[in-house]
Design goal:
This protein has 16 helices and 3 strands. Helix 6 runs antiparallel to helix 7. Helix content is about 75%, strand content about 5%.
Length: about 400
């Protein structure tokens, strides 16, 4: 059943727009009329596929969040587990979701399944919504007859990745906010407040203390040469972006990210948890090992670790193990490579990978707790030192003058 996008006027005279699931345009108009909506424009949002099999156009704006995708996956799993046929389950999802983009996408998926396409192939036509990992797991589930179980694993995997990402964002949010707010405050103090205070020192017939001279020098530079500083800042940003986009620059920055003070160990833990959880989920869903490694490589955000995984895949194709090239890379801790090696030898690789992921999820939580308890007083101390220096530099000439006349 196609989905139609419409514009119209409701009973209160307000302009509205939306989508409706109906058998034809006339049916859609009739349903809207019964809802007291005067239709000014209506058209099918999922166009017919071309003879070449190209993807139908999706007119919906916006994006499908990972939360929307996880909820949809969970609902589809529940419907299939309850014994509801696939097409009927897809219809129920279309009626249930409020996300316009996802509703139109699922309508197109349902149309393709009705035409004889597999669910995985239908999902593959929408790579902006369903990534390679999602499609390959669905394909493996269809091939093994365990689609509902695979959907459950996908739900758990997506929710786990969301939680992991949320934890990292929460750890970085506070210091980033403090740096941003502190920078704005410093610019205002040096460009507005300090120039007004310097007029107090003009009548002082003695040399200003060095801290005060430094403070006034910074203030004068910001006030008189701000445009040069802006140009330099923009140039530095552009140069950094160019360096970061180059192959060599990206590799160096990502290598530094894994070894930087405070946050390097956190980034490495997150990457290991993502690697282990993704590979375990794929293998337990029946996705072939080489295909799984290709997908894991795409999921990783760090090019240094991508290179390691590519070497692992190459070695696997030559009959080598997973653990050995990971160990040789030096990027994975001995605990991880040892657990994976034990899993390979015992035939319990998937369960061992899940244990690695669970272990590192816990370590990520502990690391974030430690960082938060460390960063908050550290940022407060830094701000106190900066503010203290400014107050000291402002007051020192007045104190010296008072002592001279005292």
């Amino acid at each position: 059943m196609p989905v139609f996008a419409y514009r119209g006027v409701n009973a209160q005279g307000k302009n509205i727009k939306g989508i409706i699931d109906a058998g034809s345009i006339s049916d859609a108009r009739a349903r809207l009329k019964s809802d007291k909506i005067f239709v000014t424009d209506i058209q099918e949002s999922s166009k017919a596929a071309s003879a070449s099999g190209e993807s139908r156009s999706i007119t919906g704006k916006g994006r499908v969040s990972t939360q929307d995708l996880a909820l949809m996956t969970q609902q589809l799993s529940t419907l299939l587990t309850s014994g509801i046929p696939l097409v009927d389950s897809l219809s129920a999802l279309i009626d249930q979701t409020d996300n316009v983009r996802l509703k139109e996408t699922m309508s197109d998926v349902r149309s393709r399944v009705n035409e004889g396409s597999s669910l995985a192939d239908a999902f593959a036509k929408h790579p902006k919504v369903f990534n390679n990992l999602y499609v390959n797991m669905i394909r493996a589930g269809e091939a093994s007859g365990t689609l509902d179980m695979v959907l459950n694993k996908l739900t758990f995997f997506t929710e786990n990745q969301n939680k992991l990402q949320g934890k990292v964002v929460s750890a970085l949010a506070y210091p980033i906010f403090m740096i941003f707010a502190g920078s704005i405050a410093m610019v205002i103090i040096f460009s507005v407040v300090i120039p007004k205070l310097t007029s107090l020192y003009e009548d002082i017939d003695q040399a200003l203390p060095i801290p005060t001279q430094i403070l006034i020098g910074i203030s004068n530079t910001l006030r008189d040469y701000w445009y040069i500083l802006v140009v330099v800042l923009i140039g530095a940003i552009l140069a950094f972006r160019s360096f970061a986009r180059s192959t060599k620059g990206q590799w160096k920055l990502h290598q530094y990210a894994l070894n930087m003070p405070l946050f390097g160990s956190l980034f490495r833990m997150v990457a290991i948890a993502r690697f282990s959880n993704t590979l375990a989920t794929l293998l337990s869903s029946g996705v072939p090992i080489l295909t799984s490694m290709d997908i894991v490589k795409r999921v990783m955000n760090n090019v240094v670790l991508k290179d390691v995984i590519e070497k692992v895949r190459t070695n696997l194709s030559e009959g080598d193990s997973i653990a050995e090239p990971l160990r040789r890379s030096g990027q994975f801790p001995p605990l991880v490579t040892h657990m994976i090696s034990v899993g390979e030898k015992s035939g319990e690789l998937e369960s061992m990978l899940y244990k690695v992921a669970e272990t590192y999820d816990t370590q990520v939580e502990n690391k974030i707790t430690t960082l938060t308890s460390l960063l908050e007083p550290m940022m407060i101390l830094i701000m106190a030192v900066v503010v203290g220096f400014i107050v000291f530099s402002v007051m020192l000439p007045l104190i010296n003058m008072n002592n001279a006349f005292g």
